[in-house]
Amino acid sequence: MARTADHERRRHQVAEALMATVGERGLARTTLADVADRAGVSVGLVQRYFRSKAQLLRFGVEHMYHRAEQRLREVSAGPQPVTSVRDRLDRATETLLPLDEERVRELTVWLEFLPATLADPEMARMHGEATGALLDALSEALEMAIDQGELPEDRDPRAEARALVACVDGLTLHHLVTGEAFDAETIRAALTTHLDRLFADPESP
């Protein structure tokens, strides 16, 4: 058991080093040696766990998506009670935005990794599965909102889930690339506006 725990700890250590290095240097300029140096281990140890840079990158992507999933789960398990489906969606989608240093780093890496999905079928599969799981979770929440009367019955849960993901991704992209016009306060407010419009009662004045 101890060996397994140490093995996982080392893999986690290498994954964190990969995230930090790619975030600073970019994917094209990152080497196994860079990652090993950042992790404080030998290149040989990195190669023991990952036989190629492609394997290391795939593990980094998997690690990144796992962190995002953890944050989403913590929305329900957190100390503050969730009062409604709208409240749950507010909190859940906000975890997907780059609103702190850790998420800025992860999502900067995400932008670096996305082009690789066009050439690497395995990374494309991983990205597709992660996106599909997110769409499923959001669709389920929106269906629940309709059932509970929070959301108008004419809403299409799957279509609205896609629109919500596109909104979050667009805000993330502009925050990381465009700069001051999409600062943290602005993108948080824009997400709230999107949800306000989604949950608005069409019969209200």
Automatic annotation (TrEMBL):
Organism expressing this protein natively: Nocardiopsis lambiniae
Domain of life the protein comes from: Bacteria
InterPro entries linked: BetI_C (IPR039538), Homeodomain-like_sf (IPR009057), HTH_TetR (IPR001647), Tet_transcr_reg_TetR-rel_C_sf (IPR036271)
Protein name: TetR family transcriptional regulator C-terminal domain-containing protein
Entries under Gene3D superfamilies matching the protein: Tetracycline Repressor, domain 2 (1.10.357.10)
Residues in HTH tetR-type domain copies: 8-68
DNA-binding region: 31-50
Lineage: Bacteria, Bacillati, Actinomycetota, Actinomycetes, Streptosporangiales
Alphabetical keyword list: DNA-binding, Repressor, Transcription, Transcription regulation
Segments traversing the membrane: none
